[in-house]
Amino acid sequence: MILVPRQGIPQAGGTLTEQYKNMHREVLDDPYLPNEWNNQKTSSAYRFNGRVKSGGKTTVFTTQVNVSANGQNIVGDAANEPSIAVSPADPNIMVIGWRQFDNIASNFRQAGWAYTTDAGHTWTFPGVIEPGIFRSDPVLDCNASGKIFYNSLTNDPDYFCKVFGSTDGGVTWDSGTDAAGGDKQWMVIDRTEGPGRGNMYSTWTHYFSTCAPGFFIRSTNENQSYENCTVADGYAYWCTMAVGTRGELYIAGTNGTPDHLVVARSMNAPYKDSAVTWLPPVTVFAGGNPVGWSGVNPGGLLGQVNVDIDRSAGPGRDNVYVLASVARTSNGDPCDVVFMRSTDGGDTWSGPVRINDDATSTDYQWFGTMSVAPDGRIDAVWLDTRDSPDPTDSSALYYSYSVDQGETWSVNERISGLFDSHVGYPNQNKIGDYFDMVSDNAGAHLAWANTFNGEQDVCYSYIVPPVVSSTQPIEARMNISVYPNPADEAIFLSGVPVNSRYEIMNSLSQVVKSGIVHQAVTRIDLSDQITGIYFLQVTSVSGKSEVVKLMKQ
Known about the structure:
By secondary structure, the protein is mainly beta. Strand 7 (about 110-115) and strand 8 (about 125-130) form a beta hairpin. It is globular and about 65 Å long.
């Protein structure tokens, strides 16, 4: 069974059927149960580095993050629905939050998290933010100075969110700030140089709101307090948010209009001394609707609606992009990943572009997730059943990217093995409702869930496409290839003109390696470098220069 959102926009005081509401709400059902083996029974954690298929050009490093103190998988627990924050102050620091189930016999969940200080090579999982407190729907983001915030939903006795802050890269958290809230909340933080710098915004499903009829709030003092709830025009739900280059705020989701998504926009949200107002909402033709409660994820969504902005200095600057997994009306496809673009700030939109390139209309492309790199490259991932042997519906992680503002997309690449999304249910038959991703100029940082260990676990992946910068014309680029990336002992550099110069810099922009390319393939030793993020800059004799981000394991 696939359920599509009810049509129309419920107005203040209106209701949806209790049957529909009960299907995806986050409620306290089971009592807390500790881990059956007190977290002492472990197995090997999942880890992968390289290319999944021979001939593939994208490399991926994947490692499990919900691990024991010695880096092992904890048997008998479950983790899903992850969100990720990457510090802009130090990209070696990242935090992932998720729904933590200590015992799969109970659907009691808590606010789990893990942090890394070495660019995702290793992760520390301290536990949960508030032990014994029911929490769900984690959403993480960070401000421009690198402070990380964790928005978490509870339902005891009513829907309510707290936003916790960390000034030490996720090692510790403060006691949290009440932030109203409701089911399927999302949060975004303004990191521009404008008047809204540091503002925090949150919205959620309007028919599950603790402050109805409102379902949107703002903090202008870095989470010290929040303003009163208000209505965000368009009534978007299953949504995400993005802040544009001028501090303008976008919300993209569904409101039940057949075959369409909805985008809400506020131009004055950054101004602390004015109430947030909204431009008329714009409906965006998607050729289908976000859905849920189907075979691949019987108790949850097949993904939320993603929105992001091109913040580059290239030709796509200020473009607004929307991506979603939708059930197609035209051909009955159960779930395709579609992409829409606006080049005028959200006033008008392109028609939907189907990103998945499978030849059938029967497979699921679900949990579609998008992020935009600072240079304008658009990254997209999703789970895909196209390779599943009949009659199963096992999924693999797929990836595609665009370097021309979404006009064309790279050939789909499978970047994980197949896994069965139905195993390891924590007394709740779903593997969450979404993934989360953040892109940089060299790759994409992804937080996602899978069952490679025979249970639900959260993994971090760093996905490195075979492109360097989307602001250069494709024909002007060198055909650089760096492999492996991430690397252990050395990298091999090819596709570079002879006599080009290379430099490798650490995250502090200090040059740690340099040399001249004398042959078709150049080996660069990294064994004497510490784990972390590095940048390889190659400059040809003609002055053409390109930069590739490296990860040293």
